[in-house]
Amino acid sequence: MEQPTFAIYLRTDVNWTQLTEENFLDQRDSQSSVIPYRPQRLRPILRGIQVWNQLFRMNYFEYRQRLKDIAVLSRSHIRGIDLVIRNRHRAPNLSNMGQRSFLLPCDDDDWYAPHVVERLLSVAESCGGVICWKDAKVCFTHPRVKRGDPNSPLFVRSSGPRGVKTNSYAVSNAAYSSCPPQLRGLFLDRHDRVHKIVANNCNGATLLPIDEVLSFTYKSPASITCIRNMTSEQRLRDLVPLIRDASPSLTKEVEWARPYAEMVAELNQELVHGIRSNGSGEPVNRQLNGSAPRVPARHAELINLLIDRFKYDSYLEIGCAGNRTFSKIDVPDKVGVDPHKGGTLRTTSDAFFQENRRKFDLVFIDGLHHREQVMRDIQNAVNCLTPRGTILVHDCLPKTERHQLRKKQRGSWTGDVWKAIVDLRRQDDLDICVFDGCWGMGAIKVRRNAAPFEEDIPLNWETFLSSRDDMLRVVNWQRYWDFLSAHPAAPETTACDSQYAVEMT
Ligand SMILES: C[S@@+](CC[C@H](N)C(=O)[O-])C[C@H]1O[C@@H](n2cnc3c(N)ncnc32)[C@H](O)[C@@H]1O
């Protein structure tokens, strides 16, 4: 018997990083995968977004992208997906998928069990129509909210396999083909209609329920259903304790979702820590571990703050000179590399990285201040960084033109380190910002670039003076601390990146 083909059909795949309050209503022009809501329907959502952006310092669109990143990570773990269909405006051409095939319609924030395909395969033989599985019950709890309370924005909807809800079904090629063409869009997009469509319009098709939770979505306060009810800041403020104190409480059957639920819990903590002032000038609800410690006077102090905050165990310094920093770093396991003096290894960074096989939590790059050398040091540091690690790069902000000349200067000299930072800010997989202090301390996290620098401008002293803050994403201390504390976002991989996958756009 021919092995069925399985495809994820992304009903929505919004690029949230491209959306702003200004272009939100016109998103159909820029996004190929957006449900074509009419502006009347989008307006209340936009109002909710504006309320959100007034209250939280984490922009609504960034929050949504972070939720999407978590879901992308979940889908990248599904075994046995053959293709991913992303463009909702092109009717899926199932004939390309072979006679026996199944579509799994989902939204960009849905999570899936890694074994979903194996489970569906086990019943696919007996199903000529739609396989649906149990929706998750509560995935987050709060002491003050009853389990399953439909009014709480923190709970996923709950229903059994009979009430097919979002993302909990797979449609077979046979059922889809037997459905009248004008209803096919509804079939894939409107989970609440699936029953009726199968019963009334698909010849011979049946609905096969599975009593297992194979997918669910975290019902976030930012979901479209919830955000359009956020008509006032007070309403959103009232939710803050629920968002802050709710924790993932997963039953055994959805244990597979634990990593994603924990990521959401951390994201929510980050969100509520970033609440804006309520007009009194004082930030509201900023928790101790969310607000930055006092601004460090020297870079050794900054490095020790990070080591303390993130419980780092290992430290690598490139360029140690007289050990002014190296000797003050308070960590048991430290390695210093310098060809001339200081540190623990007398060699160049290139030679060190060539031999090195170990990982570090924190890498501080302060060696030769030339663009291409700094670039190499950063790239090598990325390869030996632990997953929660941080790379710091010193001397990103020259104060005068002389400081940034290529030739080493007497006294303070930053060289053209700043140009390496601008080069790397164009990359997708590194998130970078620069603290406006300590001669510009660049911070690099290996995660999705939340603010890529896309302008094509020459890198010279004039453009540095006119566009320094944009080019280098220069931030104050609090924003720097928030950046460092942010949870590592999931890499942008999906099932379609697997070697077996073919992508239909
Ligand atoms: C600005 S100093 C470092 C200061 C030190 N990190 C501190 O905080 O006090 C730069 C150091 O980089 C070293 N250096 C120069 N070229 C290097 C290379 N290729 N690899 C590693 N270190 C290098 C120099 O010998 C010098 O000691």
What does this structure look like?
The chain is of the alpha/beta class. The protein folds into two domains: 5-281; 299-485, 3-Layer(aba) Sandwich (Rossmann fold). It is built from 16 helices and 18 strands. The chain has helices at residues 27-30, 39-55, 60-76, 116-124, 173-178, 181-189, 194-201, 224-227, 233-245, 258-273, 299-310, 349-355, 371-383, 417-424, 461-472, 477-485, and strands spanning 5-10, 83-85, 101-106, 110-112, 130-134, 140-141, 169-172, 207-213, 215-217, 247-248, 314-318, 333-337, 360-365, 385-393, 430-435, 441-446, 474-475, 502-504. The strands form four sheets. The protein has a seven-stranded mixed β-sheet, with helices on both faces. A hairpin with a 5-residue loop joins strand 15 and strand 16. Helix 3 (60-76) runs antiparallel to helix 10 and helix 13 (371-383) crosses helix 14. It is elongated and about 85 Å long. The two termini are 29 Å apart. Mean pLDDT is 83; it is low at 279-289 and 489-505. Bound molecules: S-adenosylmethionine. S-adenosylmethionine (SAM) binds next to strand 11.
